[in-house]
Amino acid sequence: MIRKISYVMAMIILIAGLSGCSSNPKSENKKADLGVPADNELLAYFKAQYPDREPVQCAYEDITSDGSKDLIVIFENEKDKKQMCAVIAEENEKHQLTEPIPAPAENQKIQFKDIDEKDELEFIVSGSKNGSVGYAIYRIIDNRMINLFGEGMEDCCD
Ligand SMILES: [Ca+2]
Ligand SMILES: [Ca+2]
Question: Record's PROSITE patterns (predicted)?
Answer without folding.
Answer: PROKAR_LIPOPROTEIN
